[in-house]
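Now for a chain:

_____
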Amino acid sequence: MSVEHAQVQRAEFDQVMVPNYAPAAFIPVRGEGSRVWDQTGRELIDLTGGIAVNSLGHCHPRLIAALTEQAHKLWHVSNVFTNEPTLRLAKKLEQATFADRAFFCNSGAEANEAAFKLARRVAHDRFGPQKYEIIAALNSFHGRTLFTVSVAGQPKYSDGFGPKIEGIAHVPYNDLEALEAAISDKTCAVVLEPIQGESGILPAEQAYLEGARRLCDRHNALLIFDEVQTGVGRTGELFAYMHYGVVPDILSTAKGLGGGFPIGAILTRTELAQHFSVGVHGTTFGGNPLACAVAEAVIDVVNTPEVLQGIKAKHERFKARLQQIGEQYGIFSQIRGMGMLIGCVLSEPCKGKAKDVLVAAEQADLMVLQAGPDVVRLAPSLVIEDADIDEGLLRLERAVARLVRG
């Protein structure tokens, strides 16, 4: 254990940090691919991907090269000037998607904030101030700003911060009739995650997204897809909307876009983008050269047939083994999700024990996540080696065996 690592201990978190997180008892200090080492030199397999962020694992050579090269050129100039990495990244995202305009920011919450503001602005300019209502799904998650947390349908995150933002309605996910009953000519936008993330890795049904698109068109409302977690290859397509063939008006993304470097974006069409004219919305750090250079390298690697097909193949490898573990130990009733976003739904007798699985996994040198109390979530590197999948799931089995046998 090196001297600088010995100087900082986990106990210090409780003395120096605001207590809004409860991090694990160990401190990771180094990562390579899908392996992580803690202060004591213990090696863990990482199936968390930094919560679907480390799209190419830890310390991917292409990302290190992109960051290092840009670090020697230009870090920040503000949006009083543009920069080359921003323009290159925007072009690549637009060539690969439905969009022809991009806006860059620093996080998923900021991307959604921009998407919701743009939707309200478009409706305001085109139809007048009365058209501002946003419809979202119950148990959705769109970020932690006051606006985004109000749009997300989880009161536990939005209660206790004073008056809520008005004009937001919530309907059950995958329930087209409920959406049809709620939408009106006052609706400026419907926002949906193609796969509900935080509430349990729940994919949208094909007919639901198709119906949402039709309803939005009928009522002059914009369809916003929150692809913060599902975007940039996570599902086996560059964006999840591509699986469904349902095209949104605005798409927000972040997490995996920077492969670990903070960046967020919204993608949209020219006729909508023009409502964000000069001065209407902004950000100091958004589109900074470092973030955009790294994100460009992520897109270059991920948006290739071999990587995207590999993600789908790895999904099948995970799923087969997870179903086997689920059946053998009676712990999982269902394995759902797409690509490298996988939800292991706990069976009736094990309901509420997702956190226990996390703790047991860590004791077996494995990092996993939860999505609510009833679902164990895996969001590993999109290029995780098959050997790491196999070894990781062997460790998961050990953890599950110990848990089930008490």
The CA atoms of residues 138 and 172 lie 5 Å apart. The first strand starts at residue 28 and ends at 32.
